[in-house]
Design brief:
Elements (H helix, E strand, L loop, with lengths): L6 E8 L2 E8 L12 H23 L3 H19 L6 H8 L8 H22 L6 H11 L38 H12 L8 H15 L6 H15 L11 H6 L1 H14 L2 H37 L6 H13 L2 E3 H8 L3 H13 L4 E2 L8 E3 L1 H8 L10
Antiparallel strand pairs: 1-2, 3-5, 4-5
Helix pairs in contact: 1-11, 2-4, 2-12, 3-4, 4-5, 4-8, 6-7, 7-8, 10-11, 11-15, 12-14, 13-14
């Protein structure tokens, strides 16, 4: 549906160039969303897929084992969209206490994403509302100690930014001038709290993400925080009990369509086209996540069956295997601490796993060895390949 411009343009001079900055109108859209049968069906299918993903989490013997690496895969993907080149293996290596050499700047940004998400979820579990204060807290963690450390972590911007292009004059889009950031974000906060009217949580997540990206309230980290906002909203509303839905891979795959539809929303008010895309993103991502969970569970079950053939050594090997499901790149020292087994028993178990081709050793050294649960990592790595030409 085509509406009018969803806000207004204001001319501003920044770094010596006059630009046309866009100030969005508050949510919800007016006139209201036109729910065609096709759009209603797309939303119903997405909600059904979301419910299936949520129920699959309940069937896992230990959902925390899967979540540890699933969240980190999303961190890699979300940061990759912003230009980092860190891999899932880089992040898992970085998080080892021994911390062997990995590309620190990139991997620290990815690690910050994990910390930011965990902080946001913990605050919500404690009953803290999804608010501007919480978004600033999450943003501070997102940019802590990384390349964005000089970009006002935890503070809304006080200068003009732009999206695309090498300078404001050739930007693809110019967000609101800095004096409008706080009023725009305050209006978004009211919308998140069902003012001026209640909005179903799934629809709220779709609308709020688009609005947040339009406001672009921070100097850096807006894309990552905008994607986190979706997960936080769905968890806050209990549409998801665990943070298992992440749309970065879909947005990365359909990057140009994503940007085009957000721009259409601003210029023509075609919220329906954006909502249809969002529903497709959720449905496809849920299907992929369910399939990944099922593949990992089948793989783990098959590996456990192999380990049970080891006789007296099976018990210790199964304990080591269980820890590798949570942290699929690991060291014998860390595994000894987490399992409570002696270093000698852990090393014997690792050798059993290696001989069964369940794990492989990465360093080729006799000391300070690092082991990888390769098939597990390979399944999670699908879709995390860097885009052609980097960036």
């Amino acid at each position: 549906m085509r509406r009018q411009l969803q806000g207004r343009f204001e001319y501003r001079t920044t770094v010596g160039v006059t630009v046309r900055a866009f100030v969005p109108a508050p949510l919800p859209p007016h006139p209201p969303i036109a729910w065609s049968p096709a759009l209603r069906r797309a939303f119903d299918e997405a909600l059904h897929a979301l419910g299936r993903l949520d129920s699959v989490a309940l069937l896992l013997p230990d959902v925390s084992l899967f979540l540890y690496t699933h969240v980190r895969k999303e961190a890699v993907l979300s940061s990759m969209i912003e230009g980092t080149q860190s891999s899932l293996s880089d992040l898992l290596l970085f998080e080892l206490e021994e911390r062997p050499g990995v590309p620190l700047d990139d991997v620290r940004e990815v690690s910050n994403y994990v910390a930011a998400l965990n902080h946001g979820l913990q605050r919500l579990r404690e009953g803290f509302p999804l608010s501007l204060r919480l978004l600033r807290e999450i943003h501070a963690l997102l940019l802590a100690g990384g390349r964005g450390g000089d970009k006002l972590p935890g503070e809304f911007r006080r200068s003009q930014n732009w999206i695309g292009g090498t300078r404001p004059g050739n930007a693809v889009f110019v967000p609101p001038p800095p004096e409008h950031v706080m009023p725009c974000m305050s209006a978004l906060e009211l919308f998140l709290h069902n003012q001026p009217e209640p909005v179903p949580p799934f629809l709220k997540a779709a609308l709020a993400h688009a609005q947040f990206e339009t406001i672009h309230p921070f100097l850096d980290g807006n894309g990552r925080l905008g994607r986190l906002l979706i997960t936080l909203l769905l968890c806050e509303s209990n549409l998801l009990r665990e943070p298992m839905l992440y749309l970065s891979l879909f947005f990365k795959t359909h990057r140009q369509t994503y940007y085009d539809l957000l721009n259409q929303v601003r210029l023509t008010g075609d919220w329906e086209a954006w909502l249809d895309f969002f529903a497709e993103a959720v449905a496809e991502t849920c299907h992929r996540a369910v399939e990944t969970v099922q593949r990992l569970e089948r793989m783990a079950r098959a590996d456990r069956d192999q380990l049970r053939t080891l006789g007296r050594a099976a018990g210790s090997a199964l304990r080591v295997h269980h820890e590798l499901l949570a942290r699929p790149i690991n060291t014998s020292q860390t595994l000894a601490r987490s399992t409570g087994l002696t270093p000698m028993t852990v090393n014997k178990s690792l050798e059993h796993l290696r001989q069964l081709d369940i794990i492989r050793e990465l360093t080729g050294q006799r000391r300070n060895r690092i082991f990888a649960y390769t098939q597990y990592i390979n399944i999670l790595n699908e879709g995390t390949e860097p885009p052609e030409g980097g960036g």
